Amino acid sequence: MEIVTENATSLAWIGDAVMSLAVREHLLSLGFRKAHVLQKKNAVICSAKGQAIMLNKMMEEDFFTEDEKTILARGRNATIHSKAKNATHKTYLEATALESMLGYLYLYGHQERLKVCLDKIIEIGDSLWCASSVQLI
Question: Catalytic one among 16, 62, 67, 126?
């Protein structure tokens, strides 16, 4: 693992953008075109609650490498001065952990692993979209 000099919240900021873009591209590829539908379905995954669900499901499957687990721990230990509107502090830190790990993969050029992680997130997300109350308009 590279020596990571960026703090966890900076990595999370990058990871959040990468995840949101991947999820939106996936939704567009499925044929969703209306902005409000894209936003609602994107929020199922890219909200703090959604990201915490993704992280926990991936942890249950022992999906992450040891290096990624180190970055996840940094994200969980981040100093957060604000929180999501509709999430607990714990949920917000779990979301920050996942975002940090994705930001790390992106920033340090681990594109193949980043794609594997995003594909897994989207796979889990597809099952959540089917179970969510978001209407397919």
Answer: 16
